[in-house]
Amino acid sequence: MISQWQLRAAFAARLSEMYGREVPAYTTLVDVSREVNEDVLRAQGADAERLGSISRVTAERHGAIRVGTPAELAQVARVFGALGMRPVGFYDLREAAASAVPVVSTAFRPVDGEELARNPFRVFTSMLTPADPRFFDADLRARLETFLAGRELFPPELLALADRAEEARELPDADAERFLQLAVSAFELSTEPIDKTWYETLERVSAVAADIGGVRSTHINHLTPRVLDIDELYRRMTERGIEMIDTIQGPPRWKGPDLLLRQTSFRALAEPRALRTPDGQVTSGALRVRFGEVEARGIAVTREGRALYDRLLTLLDQRTAAHPGADRAELAHSLWTEHVPGTERELAAQKLGYFTYHLAPDRPRDGSRPPEALDDLLAQGWVRAEPLVYEDFLPRSAAGIFQSNLSDAGSRDNDQQGAAYDSDWLSGAMDRDVLDPFALYERQQNQSLAQVAAELELHLTTITGAS
Predict the structure, then answer these.
(1) pLDDT at 427 over 90
(2) GO molecular function terms here (predicted)?
């Protein structure tokens, strides 16, 4: 029998092999990421594994896919449910991008700490929003919804196997192999000719809309390795002659703790695609829809930490606008140095970051009674804190990556009222709850605090910071 986490690891590995064949520059990205990680590990030793073992970091991937309808999204949820991945977080990229990016998104990932340590594969999944009149008028919406209703992304056999795997949390070897074959092939780039006129109609609204609704299949849009030094990777990729986007999205490089998520990518490549013209002829063309993203993950922040991050982004925008000739990265570095705690200890003390707490191996053994406050337990060497890795995404960064790889801003009518989509709507569409990432981190943190309290025979309520 093949367990869910083994299915997840095998699926991630096979998807990576397939994507490397389709997009050779992705293989280069993986190779450079591995080289950088090995160099960081040699230079920093154990500190390099502060946010995950090197085996986890090396295996780690996040994928991105795009679907067109709630029904398709519900089917995706079943496929990833087979792999022990649940929808976490709601991201509205319509509001996060200046360009036309008419999608709302969630991320499917493991949620248990042990499962994340085994294989933290996650897939950022975006769904088109045809009901939003800022992008689609009534006629185009009707045509788009008719087109989407007429396609099948996932064969019934795949969905049946997925449901069995999710219910039993495993599959027999032969069924597991068949599931993996069907699942990987569902995300391959189709060779079926694309209706050129229909694709271009949607492309005038948004290249993202065309990539979703202009074809009869879905595909992996990018597959992202994790790197321990994203600035060094950016430099090395550029040295190899690979064109990168202009910036690294997310928090700046600075001397303090790495927070949240930093992302960059190489630019979308012109890939040959077969196009069908109105007279029925099939011609050879090229589309730019897929790119190579890479990420560096930091510490998960609390709601207060996230509010601080969002406030600093607003301040950064204001300072950049006020000083158009200034270097944005330098302005960001200055803001972070001014406002963000410079150590993990301060992050924990100010309740800005999430940590798990564990008894220190070298804690006092002289029979003394441990103190009852968490700060004192840490200061006196009874307990150590380990930062929780940020497992999720940032809507503005995701939109920035999308936007950086678009050749045209598309069109949107801001005089129209946008259609309402939120986490509850998405939960209903999939018939499964979209989980709150903050609640997941809090649960991990509080479980560790409860364990510490039990081992030291303290009441949990006496430990500050337990809430």
Answers:
(1) yes
(2) dioxygenase activity
Q: 């008419």: which residue's tokens?
A: 102
The strand pair at 170-171 and 2-3 is best described as antiparallel
Quick: pLDDT tens for 343-357.
999 999 899 999 999
| Nearest in space to 135 (alpha carbons), one of 167, 108, 101 | 101
Question: How far, in Å, CA of 183 to CA of 121, rounded?
Answer: 15
pLDDT at 406: 64
The distance from CA 310 to its chain's CA centroid, rounded to whole angstroms, is: 18
- List Cβ neighbours of 202 (8 Å cut-off, separation of 6 or more): 140, 144, 209, 210, 213, 214
The DSSP 8-state label assigned to residue 150 in this structure reads T
Q: How many CB atoms are located within 10 Å of the residue 71 CB?
A: 14
Q: Write out pLDDT tens, residues 53-65.
A: 999 998 899 999 9
Alpha helices in 97-241 (DSSP H): 113-118, 138-149, 156-168, 173-186, 196-205, 207-213, 230-239
Q: How far apart are CA 331 and CA 123, in angstroms?
A: 32
Would you identify the CATH topology of the domain 2-299+395-433? 2,3-Dihydroxybiphenyl 1,2-Dioxygenase; domain 1 (3.10.180)
pLDDT above 60 (res 461):
no
Q: Where are the beta strands (DSSP E) in 206-319?
A: 222-225, 261-266, 270-276, 282-288, 292-297
Which residues have C-beta within 8 Å of that of residue 136, sequence separation ≥ 6? 102, 130, 144, 205, 209
Estimate to the nearest angstrom the gap between the alpha carbon of 183 and the chain centroid.
20
